[in-house]
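Hi R.,

Here are the chain sequences for the assembly we discussed:
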Amino acid sequence: MRCRSRYRSRLSVRGICVGRRRQSVTIKHVAADAGVSLQTVSRVINNEANVRPEMKERVQASIDKLGYVPSIAAQRMSGSRSYLILALNDRERTMENWKAREGNDWVDQMLMGGMLQCAEHGYRLLLELVDTHDDNIQRELKATIAALQPDGVILTPPHSDNPLITDLLEKQKIPFARIGSRDNGGSISLTMGDNRMAAMATRYLIEKGHERIAFIAGAEEYALSHRRKQGWRDAMAQAGLSTEGLCERGDFSYASGEKATRALLSGSARPTAIIASNDQMAMAANAVAHEMGMRVPGDVSIISFDNTPVVRFVQPPLTAIDQPIAEVTSRAVDLVIAAHRGDDLPDMPVVVEGRLIERDSVARPRG
Amino acid sequence: MRCRSRYRSRLSVRGICVGRRRQSVTIKHVAADAGVSLQTVSRVINNEANVRPEMKERVQASIDKLGYVPSIAAQRMSGSRSYLILALNDRERTMENWKAREGNDWVDQMLMGGMLQCAEHGYRLLLELVDTHDDNIQRELKATIAALQPDGVILTPPHSDNPLITDLLEKQKIPFARIGSRDNGGSISLTMGDNRMAAMATRYLIEKGHERIAFIAGAEEYALSHRRKQGWRDAMAQAGLSTEGLCERGDFSYASGEKATRALLSGSARPTAIIASNDQMAMAANAVAHEMGMRVPGDVSIISFDNTPVVRFVQPPLTAIDQPIAEVTSRAVDLVIAAHRGDDLPDMPVVVEGRLIERDSVARPRG
DNA sequence: GTGAAAGCGCTAACAA
DNA sequence: TTGTTAGCGCTTTCAC
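And here is the predicted structure of the full complex:
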């Protein structure tokens, strides 16, 4: 089988033809077909003003007839849009989850919310893994931006709070949304109400009669770790309860959850309930409690943050605070696109609150 | 805060500057810096022959010094590469998994294998959801291709066997890899050895002493459904065992698994083991068996296909055939890139075999 | 309101 | 081996 490209023919391997590919229908064809100038067609595709309705209709008819679709590469070349949104995820954590093959809720939900919303606007979402601790992070990010010229960037924790990243994006004047981060200086930021959610979980336990409610905090470098802890502390204070010796810091890993739980449950004023800053640490708490001969929820109640798929499958299924990742990503997409267009933006941070999903890991304290 | 773009300044909203973005460092800057022509720089970036080592080194030095990265849009405009690989997934199934929030192993593993391998080659992977049953599938795909001009496409089941898709890609001369599909006509195809894997599971059960081994087949439109069934049938025949009344067809859904299992376990020659064509149907089989007062694996052994995260969390954890999705996607990326370059390709289909993961759902049959 | 001309950053084809 | 020229498909600028 020979390659019969109109242009220079290349190799043909096993019948697979590869050649210089050109746009089959270009703006020129449409212009010719509609009998107008290129510019008018361009105006119609971009929905610009100053085109008479009848003209617009005529051009649109040609577009539909010929099945014309603008080339993103060409649009990017001359104009200012690439119709590409870049989503930056933490390399280490993502790879870990993938490799463990225990599911990757964050990426799944982010894609679901982000991809679909991008599609609504005619954009595409491109996922990119970035190593927060890499010294060359700025150089790598610069290269990615230079190559792709994305119209917007979505930052997830812990990148949302990495000044190396945010400074660079600011300098490059690329609109970016920080998920899980509060506003500091004009940029787009979205949170899932960490403070309030932690407080809500705490109050929920207080209402059940708990007084010694412990908290396992997350990694320091995540801003949301601090906010969750603050929410717990505020709710405890408001109820006049002491938090003395009831907080341990983990790093979101299972192992750190085990360690924190052991410390908590071996102390003198053993807590009757534990709130963990993510599911892995909550599952570790559950396992350690069992190990130490305690019943969940009989002796210790547990509430976790995130509500990833796994918490439904441990015994007992964990009561958890759901993180509306899909929704918040979808909003983030809306916002960066709006920013890129120069539209007005709402006050920051935009809050998309989660909710408490009741399962079987919470009960009234004994006695 | 005013926008201080060198070019036409646009709106500035809440301090977010949006302007016409141009490449900060272009091939021209490099050429000027190195004192050579554009073409020479182009040759260096593309690693072409006919450049003297010293020249190459000089140019490379300028590239490094200036931090130059080629614009993909510009490369796509004139050349033949977009450095974009498109991965087409089934919209319905993907959305279902995302919404159920039970994890989406296929997408996760595919991204892991595909993205990382793309990165190795300097490519990016773009995920796109396609509705196989959409009448406009060709029109939509054409539009996507026109807009993105991907250098290659990766097809997953059931798209791999959808002639509307494969014909279009062939016509457009875009290299594509079909995952889960056998070779038919020159194109790139990869399988996970469905036939052999099903036979292996069957033999594994036979060795344990089972004789009445049932099979729950998957949806008709998936070519791999037929191959898995065939593997089971072959292994049974080879061992001189009858398959009479031991096969039910499902559609990969949990509900269809329940129905198939009920039919199987209510029959006269009740099977002592069931192989299900995917995890959902296997979990349904497990649940139905319990419901009908049977023990797993005591009364019925179960083996499932896929080995998604959930099978570890049901009781008992299911013995399963692992699908090496990450690996097969990674190979697919290699192959489409090779095809696009016109390199030689291996014989098709490329087979990346899975393996049996032993857990607790298989035992010797009673008596 | 519409059109003509100039160029975006890069590569293919050809010339030297 | 290297350089020159002419676009790729689109948008911007500016003239009408």
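Residues 194-322 of chain B form a domain with the Rossmann fold fold (CATH 3.40.50.2300). Chain B has three domains: 12-76, 84-192+325-351, 194-322.

Let me know if anything looks off.

Best,
T.
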